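Page 37, continued from 36.
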């Protein structure tokens, strides 16, 4: 863990000096210096006191870097294609178990000729256009602003049935980090 670097970054961003932290917590400047350079490990009680001075939740100090906020700017999105219709997929952001993407369905395009299944749960929001979705024996048409969800282990397919490109926001949850199959 890199708790010391996290404390130093927060302290500097908030313009708080080591002396101020020491004054409010009773810790020595030498200890704080060693803590910020990751040469010593604090107790939970000490971390809790430091978190109070920094006005951050204790849990934030304990998060690994990969578990903190991940930012993807619009012009930095990874773009791929999927399926036989080469659907354009803009990868918005993800965590270990959740992925969000914008999927562009040209007129008549679908996620595949036949329904398919994979691990996970999906939530869809139609941003633009009209789509037809099928899962098992269930089927429905959806327009802008409509949403639907399902367990992806049951075969499913989504088709653009409108006269223009459809755009669907899709969020996929998987229990494992390896669930990278597409909708």
């Amino acid at each position: 863990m890199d708790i010391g670097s996290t404390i130093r970054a927060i302290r500097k961003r908030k313009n708080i000096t080591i002396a101020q932290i020491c004054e409010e917590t009773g810790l020595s400047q030498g200890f704080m210096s060693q803590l910020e350079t990751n040469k010593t490990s604090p107790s939970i009680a000490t971390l809790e006191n430091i978190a109070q001075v920094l006005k951050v939740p204790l849990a934030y100090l304990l998060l690994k870097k990969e578990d903190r906020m991940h930012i993807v700017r619009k012009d930095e999105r990874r773009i791929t294609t999927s399926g036989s219709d080469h659907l354009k997929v803009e990868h918005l952001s993800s965590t270990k178990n959740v992925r969000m993407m914008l999927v562009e369905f040209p007129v008549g395009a679908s996620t595949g000729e036949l329904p398919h299944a994979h691990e996970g749960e999906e939530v869809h929001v139609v941003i633009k256009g009209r789509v037809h979705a099928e899962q098992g024996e269930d089927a429905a048409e959806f327009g802008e602003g409509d949403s639907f969800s399902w367990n992806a282990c049951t075969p499913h397919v989504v088709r653009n049935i409108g006269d223009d490109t459809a755009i669907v926001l899709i969020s996929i949850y998987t229990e494992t980090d390896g669930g990278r199959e597409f909708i």
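The two ends are 35 Å apart (CA to CA). Flag for discussion at group meeting. The CA atoms of residues 21 and 53 lie 6 Å apart.
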